[in-house]
Amino acid sequence: MAKLFRAVIMGPPGSGKGTISERIAHSFGLKHLSSGDFVRENIAAKTEAGVQAKTYIKKGLLVPDHVMTRLLLPRLGEMTKYSWLLDGFPRTLAQAEALNSACDLDVAINLNIPLETLKERLRHRWIHPPSGRVYNMCFNPPRVQGIDDITGEPLIQQEDDRPEALVARLRHYKDVAKPVIDFYK
Ligand SMILES: Nc1nc2c(ncn2[C@@H]2O[C@H](COP(=O)(O)OP(=O)(O)O)[C@@H](O)[C@H]2O)c(=O)[nH]1
Ligand SMILES: Nc1ncnc2c1ncn2[C@@H]1O[C@H](COP(=O)(O)OP(=O)(O)O)[C@@H](O)[C@H]1O
């Protein structure tokens, strides 16, 4: 059997984690595991972790580390036969340490994108909240403007994708991500 490959991808909001992960997974035959998708599945299935996670997401907060690891690590346990790229986890040092004790990684990818590019991408980002599908009106537009390709439901722009909100989000991201990046270095 070919060697299994395990990678994580990190980067600030708008850096293209979701978009690039899809493409890498497709090109290299890996499973794309998205923490946001796991959270949404757990919310839909009303699992205990999903019910807890929902209260934080409604307030625009990150889900606490212990809820996130409880939700995610068992799913990774089901993936022992597959190569995967994990997107959206770990976001904190505690999550990175929990992941490290559960499996060996081959690569940690860190997307380093200039601020002006992040602003531009987020200004044009439209999402389909129930699925987490992401579009960009310039780079990757939906077939019909404002409408999700798969369900035909409306797309929205997130309040915190506004350029004014981005600086605060980035500051928060840098504070939390720096220890994770140092850990992987
Ligand atoms: N021009 C351009 N836009 C991109 C690229 N990668 C992602 N995007 C767009 O930038 C926005 C942010 O990407 P997304 O994958 O949601 O980033 P995430 O927040 O890191 O998961 C979306 O609207 C994407 O369609 C890229 O390589 N070039
Ligand atoms: N590793 C994580 N740690 C804490 N919360 C997370 C994590 N991954 C996802 N979440 C929660 O789930 C939400 C949706 O995740 P995601 O689809 O990656 O969206 P976003 O790109 O807006 O962060 C996040 O806004 C956050 O509240």
Automatic annotation (TrEMBL):
SUPFAM superfamilies: Microbial and mitochondrial ADK, insert 'zinc finger' domain, P-loop containing nucleoside triphosphate hydrolases. Pfam families: ADK (PF00406), ADK_lid (PF05191). PROSITE patterns: ADENYLATE_KINASE (PS00113). GO terms for molecular function: AMP kinase activity; ATP binding. It catalyses: GTP + AMP = GDP + ADP. The keyword Kinase applies. The keyword Transferase applies. Keywords: Kinase, Nucleotide-binding, Transferase. CDD domains: ADK. Residues 125-160 form the Adenylate kinase active site lid domain. InterPro entries: Adenyl_kin_sub, Adenylat/UMP-CMP_kin, Adenylat_kinase_CS, Adenylate_kinase_lid-dom, ADK_active_lid_dom_sf, P-loop_NTPase. PANTHER family: NUCLEOTIDE KINASE. Belongs to the adenylate kinase family. This is Adenylate kinase 3. It comes from Labeo rohita (Indian major carp).
